[in-house]
Amino acid sequence: MISNGQYSRNDLIGSPISSFYANTEDRDTFLSHLSDKKRVTDYELPILNKDGSIIPCAISAKISFDAMGAPEKIICCI
Predict the structure, then answer these.
(1) Arithmetic mean of pLDDT, 47-56
(2) Could you tell me the CATH number of the domain that includes residue 41?
(3) Which structural domain, as residue segments, surrounds residue 65?
(4) Is 2 domain-assigned?
(5) Is residue 1 part of a domain?
(6) Is-above-0.90 flag for pTM?
(7) Which residue in 10, 18, 69, 71 is a FRET match for 2, CA 20 to 30 A apart?
């Protein structure tokens, strides 16, 4: 059972990660780091829980490129 402070699976699936950042500056820093490296592993970010509390999370992500070599999307696991 999920407590009141946590998101359910349905809350998370399809939701943009930008809505969960505790600080918007952290998003910019993360995206800059990802843009430079093209892949990050265990990048730590504070994320907002459903009840507004902040929880530390590790994000692993990579940039996916299309057939022409242009960035297409970011694939990540939190």
Answers:
(1) 90
(2) 3.30.450.20
(3) 9-77
(4) no
(5) no
(6) no
(7) 18
